[in-house]
Amino acid sequence: MEVRVLGCSGGIGGLDVRTTALAVDDDILIDCGTGVGMLDVPALMAIDHVFLTHAHLDHVAYLPFIIDTVGDYRDRPLMVYAAPETLRIVRSHIFNWLIWPDFSAIPDRAHPLMHFNEMRPGESVDLGGRRITSLPALHAVPAVGYQLRSETGASLVFSGDTTVCEPQIDAINAINDLSALIIETAFPNAQHDLALAARHLCPQMLFSVLDRLLVSPEVFVTHLKPAQAAEITAEIEQYAGRLRPKILTNDHVFRF
């Protein structure tokens, strides 16, 4: 399994600053932030499955454009997976014929260009030997993370947007074959109260998560707010625990 980082920022600001999207092999996306804009039309046509962590715009912004761009060229619907509440939000507030057409009813509901699939924490989808499992998360809106397990038996976890989430920590600790953890840290320590209110992590909170991990993955930190990225990075570099987090970058490739 190959995972390529298309976008990993908590905001925008130039071609190299793009929001969350991970490409899994050629046919799967985890989230649909502005990083998806790096894919050309043939690559977009190859996407068959999209897994959403939550409904915030920086994670779903390009989903409407994908289906509008390539829907007519496909011979099967684009499959979108998310928690039930996330799907309700996306359908009510984006694919509502006001912001964007409802592609789950185009050309008709019997033959849609896009199909929504509910996926609750703990549930898995198997795709050609690859297993994607929804994990608990704790954010300002209903949210999940994902475990990606390859045919070779190795796993990667993406936390999604979350604050300290005990069930997610427990789920991560139960993954004995975990090779990599991508975990968010959106705010610097000076904005600890804002991180708490928005249900994100700051470095101090990230450290508390890492200190409780029993597994030993490589750790990559994502979702830094662009204006505070240097400050957050400097604070993360001060971590003296067992795991040594690195800052995730665009175009990083995980193979496992």
Describe this structure in words.
- With 256 residues, the protein is α/β, with parallel strands linked by helices.
- The protein has one domain (2-255): Ribonuclease Z/Hydroxyacylglutathione hydrolase-like (Metallo-beta-lactamase, Chain A, 4-Layer Sandwich), CATH 3.60.15.10.
- It contains 8 helices and 16 strands.
- The protein has helices at residues 41-46, 57-60, 63-70, 84-93, 166-173, 192-198, 203-211, 229-236; strands spanning 2-7, 21-24, 28-30, 49-51, 78-82, 107-108, 111-112, 114-118, 124-127, 130-136, 144-149, 155-158, 178-184, 218-222, 246-247, 253-255.
- Strands 8-5-4-3-2-1-16 form a 7-stranded mixed beta sheet.
- Helix 1 (41-46) links the parallel strand 3 (28-30) and strand 4.
- It is globular.
- The N and C termini lie close together (6 Å).
- The model has no long low-confidence stretch (mean pLDDT 98).
Structural class: alpha/beta
Number of separate domains: 1
CATH architecture: 4-Layer Sandwich
Number of helices: 8
The biggest beta sheet is recorded as: 7 strands, mixed
Shape: globular
As a percent range, the share of strand residues is 25-35%
Brief characterization of the structure:
This protein has helices spanning 41-46, 57-60, 63-70, 84-93, 166-173, 192-198, 203-211, 229-236; strands at 2-7, 21-24, 28-30, 49-51, 78-82, 107-108, 111-112, 114-118, 124-127, 130-136, 144-149, 155-158, 178-184, 218-222, 246-247, 253-255. By secondary structure, it is an alpha/beta fold. It has one domain (2-255): 4-Layer Sandwich (Metallo-beta-lactamase, Chain A).
